[in-house]
Amino acid sequence: MALRDRFRCIAPDYLGFGLSERPAAFGYRIGDHARVVGEFVDHLGLDGYLTMGQDWGGPIGMAVSVERADRVRGVVLGNTWFWPADTLTMKMFSRVMSSPPLQYAIVQRNFFVERLIPAGTEHRPGPAVMEHYRAVQASPADRPAVARMPKEILAAHPLLARLARDVPVKLGAKPALFVWGMKDFAFRPGPCLPRMRATFPDHVLVELPNAKHFIQEDAPQEIAAAIIERFG
Question: Per the confidence metrics, is the pTM higher than 0.85?
């Protein structure tokens, strides 16, 4: 809402998430999502666009953008990455969340919504927001994409390795904005921000001191203001 007077904002739900369909034959791998989003960008004829990614939106957005670098105006990244998992925390998270007990919890108990969203926000989302999250993942049949994501932290190594090579070369000269939740348990600023800074020399960093992982829930106004200040 805060950006729509200045920007044409497009926020698609990935297949298997939100209000998008859950096609049975779709792979729900990161490369699959990047292909679909890339086709969507091409269908809309976007040129001179800003790409913003948080969590898996970083690798997906970067995979789309390295193939369309001449059409990218700038990059906004928050609490994300685009290289192979290189910390014990990420590797262990992938293995634990890919285990049968946790896969059962994700699919049958809606673990991501009921546990990780509250844990990943400094201020728990209100009842209306939580009900929306529950409604779009209402049954086990709605959750195959959610269950796949933690597996991809390790399984998507080839794609992430390509991004680690290609992003600095193809996108590194773009103006960038980093909006970072400083209380994030997943993408701590210490390990992540130096690599971000090195990749995008022309960057502005906005620290979000009271935000955890889900910065869009904890600091939406601060993020919007930073985008306007940098690119508006």
Answer: yes
User: Does 1 have pLDDT greater than 80?
Assistant: no
Confidence band of 54 (pLDDT split at 50, 70, 90): very high
| 3-state per-residue secondary structure call for the chain | CCCCCCCCCCCCCCCCCCCCCCCCCCCCCHHHHHHHHHHHHHHHCCCCEEEEEEECHHHHHHHHHHCCHHHEEEEEEEEECCCCCCCHHHHHHHHHHCCHHHHHHHHHHCHHHHHHHHHCCCCCCCHHHHHHHHHHCCCHHHCHHHHHHHHHHHHCHHHHHHHHHHHHHHHCCCCEEEEEECCCCCCCHHHHHHHHHHHCCCEEEEEECCCCCCHHHHCHHHHHHHHHHHHC
pLDDT tens-digit map of 59-78: 999 999 999 999 999 999 99
- What domains are there in the chain, each with its CATH number? 30-231 (3.40.50.1820)
What residues are annotated to the active site?
A: 55, 184, 213
